[in-house]
Amino acid sequence: MLKAVIFDMDGVIFDSERIICDLWMDFAKEKNMQGMEDVVIKCVGLNDAATERMFKDTYGEEYPYDEFKQVISQKYHELCDGGKLPMKPGVRELLEFLKEKGVKTALASSTKVQTVTDQLRDAGILDYYEVVIGGDMIKHSKPDPEIFIKAAGQLEIDITEAFIIEDSYNGIRAAHSAGAMPLMVPDLIEPNEEISALCHKIFKDLTEVRDYLAEI
Question: 4-15+86-214 belongs to which homologous superfamily?
Answer without folding.
Answer: HAD superfamily/HAD-like (3.40.50.1000)
